[in-house]
Amino acid sequence: MKSSTFIMAVITILIISIGILSIYSSTYQRDDQLWQLTYKRQIIWAILGLAIFLMMSNFNYRRLWDSTYVLYILVIFLLFLVFILGITRLGAQRWLKIIWFNFQPSEIAKLTMVIFLARYFSSKSIDDVSLLASRRGILRVLVLPFLFVAMPVGLIIKQPDLGSGSMIIFIFLAILYLSGVRTRYIIIFLLIGIVSLPLFWQILRDYQKDRLLVFLNPNMDPLGAGYTIIQSKIAIGSGGFFGKGWLRGSQSQLHFLPESHTDFIFATFAEQWGLLGSIVLLCLYYILIRQGIQIALRTHDAFGRLLAFGISLMLGIQVFINIAMNLGLAPVVGLPLPLLSYGGSSVVVTFIALGILANIDKRRAVF
Amino acid sequence: MRIKVLQFLLAIGFLFLALGLLNVQLIQGNKFKDLSNKNCIRLIPQMGTRGRILDCQGSIIVGNYLSYDVMILPQEVDHLDKVLISVSGILGVSPKDLKDSYKSGFIAPFAPVTIAQNIDMHKAIALEELKLDLPGLIIQPCPQRSYPYGRLACHILGYLNEIDRWRLTKLADYGYKIKDIVGFGGIEEKYDYFLHQKEGGLSVEVDHTGRLVRVLGFKPPQNGKDIQLTLDLKIQKIIEDHLIDRKGSIIVMHPYTGEIIAMASQPNFNPALFIKKSGPSISSLFNNPEAPLINRSISGLYPAGSVFKLVVATGALETGKINSAKTFFCPGSIHIGNQEFSCWGTHNQQNLREAITHSCNIFFYRTGLLLGAQLIHDYALKLGFSKATSVDLPYEAGGFVPYPLWKKIYRFKNWFDGDTANLAIGQGDLLVTPLQITRMMAVFANKGILVAPYIVKAIDGRDISHDQKKNMRLSIKEDTIDYIRQALRNVVADSGGTAGVLSSLSIPIAGKTGTAQVSRGQSHAWFAGFFPFSNPRFVICVFLEHGGPGQASCVLTKQIIETMIQEGLI
Q1: In terms of domains, do B300 and B388 share one?
Q2: Out of A174, A240, A256, whose CB is closest to B33?
Q3: I want to staple B298 with a disulfide (CB 3.0 to 4.6 A). Which of A228, A338, B235, B396 is the partner?
Q4: Residue A190, Cβ density class (10 Å: 0-12 exposed, 13-18 middle, ≥19 buried)
Q5: What is the pTM of this model?
Q6: Same domain, B87 and B160
Q7: Beta strands in B484-559 (DSSP E)
Q8: Are residues B529 and B481 in the same domain?
């Protein structure tokens, strides 16, 4: 009965190991001691993550129901804190320094918003499996939750972190759809979104505009914003079918490729392992997400079901945007690839999310 | 139903990624493999030129010329020594030196290393011809600053150098990077944002021999914006010629608008030194105790001496502590407290106008004591002392006017009448900049307006003089101004006036001398004045650091104005 959890755990360990190998390969050419530490730190994060995974899988997810609003307020507080105390790195103020590591509250915000929305659209009673959304009017089903979502999204985009901000909007849309909100409302929401796009464009920083324009034509600014996309495509493309082999990726190791151990880790991986490796990695991610959806489908509790869907989709959207961005098929927005990219916040939050999934799978038998 | 749709979308999404991978890695794979193997994308940076600095007529004070850098692309070099020997033959530098700079500059095989900078065009052409035989050699043109007038106005202009850590942290948000060349001091620093150019470049695909296959993309470089100053080169040249071999500052300003027509400071420096990066001569500039890099006109702080008496005179007349008929007797020295305060002569009975004309200390000790230290301080602030004039040049000093409470708080001492007497003749803890004195003199020239001095007239052809700080009309009675104005004329025209030297000029001038005592060395010599008297067009301030009595500055002023008349500038 625990097969889903088991498969999930195996795949997760596989992906994070691949990630550590890739991080090692992208940094081992550097002389600096600090760089050599990167992969070791990731190993520590992975071990810590696994422990958290085991812990979360034994933590009754129904208790999240009660603490949703506390979590929400905590996240808003942290996001405000980033503004005041946050550290600026690569032009964005996204990190909070906690003792010896930097922590990125927008990662937690994503997961919290999934929990929040799952709770918002389900009833407390375990027996009442029907969802609330189809019975309620536009105000309670669209306007109110949107305001709740807009608050953290606004703060995140202001950091600026366009990737995480738009991720939450995507998750919001997906959960609206899944919770049975009338199609009409969703279309209205989308229309308003499209109409207000020009307005949104004004809020963006210059470099964000550049990146979006460069996505349309990477050769527009080959030395600046377009450089990363061009180098990333060369890295992936030069991998060919079998790849150049581990530690032989000239693009990523000779530092043509910026951010080769974080946002562009996929390009590093694809250069060394080729189409073969990339397809295998894609399949691993797909199976992982499918397991999440299977768990959701088997759960009868409305909250658990929405939560499982939300988490699976969160992973799915993030994987999709990141790889598409590496391939030059989506704008560069600064979103890590879950489990593969270097970064403690991302790794830990992903493990928490997977732990919740495992717990939902476990509780299913109770009902 | 909806779940099915989402599952379908998920599957489609992953299929999309798989197809994308298939496209990039298999279908276009060979192309990218080629690009990667040969590292075929070259980024050729192209520099724009930095904005020029022009004088009020539009003549170029700072321009640009093209110089060339020699660079080596490590990954394309077959025999490094062969390349270095050929290059050294042309440049006349030993191959060992070139090798050293190559080693210290090496970063990565694909990053070009600069081995020689600022070579002239002939050598560049000669090297260009060698390029075919020596793969990996790059000759990069790069625009450099040219200073057609050498040291002229160097303090106003500032110089260019590699960005330092302090400026980098300050400017990183504005897109400045490490190794950027930025302005230091003067207009180059203050207006760097407008002057500095934006790097552009080509990304090109080249084949294995380094020949261009095609251009992939182009971002045009952006030139900096030209900045026009209010400076008049001809007058600037005259005052600098006269200040040469001395120490001090001369400022010529327009009395009504606050436009700075000329501003000189000695000792000065040659801004071109920083281009050649000749190490020892630059470090000697920094270590020189005479501080040649400091613009004394705005950053130098000195006691004002007798010029400050005008503040006391204004305050006394305005508050009615004395009137124009009030006389004091000058016996040559008086006792204040238990200390003796002396005058530089004996002037007997005289009124305020005569006291200004003869620069009588006794009269001002007494007037100062009547007025009180706090009121002197207040009127000094009113006339623009103790705070920066906010001229558009960096590192302006604010100066300082002491007052009783300050002495109590910071020196833990009481304020005595002796302090007031000292302050009344511009000595003691008082510190002013030559520009502040110029501005105060302008108040008497233009009859009551405290101008906001400025030096940038236009940026990129757009007149910004309206955007500069506004001038302020002071609430001083017209009678007071007229009375002091006439006294200032008497300083020059009266037979016993302290600036009698200037009376022989064909243009009527008014002004005030000052001899500021210093604890060590000769006194500072001040002269501040305006001309022509009835309808002033220039305010001038001549300050000589340790230049002796105020007379010295008067003589210099006379020579400057004579030259200006000769050249038909007045």
Answers
A1: yes
A2: A240
A3: B396
A4: exposed
A5: 0.62
A6: yes
A7: 510-516, 524-531, 538-544
A8: yes
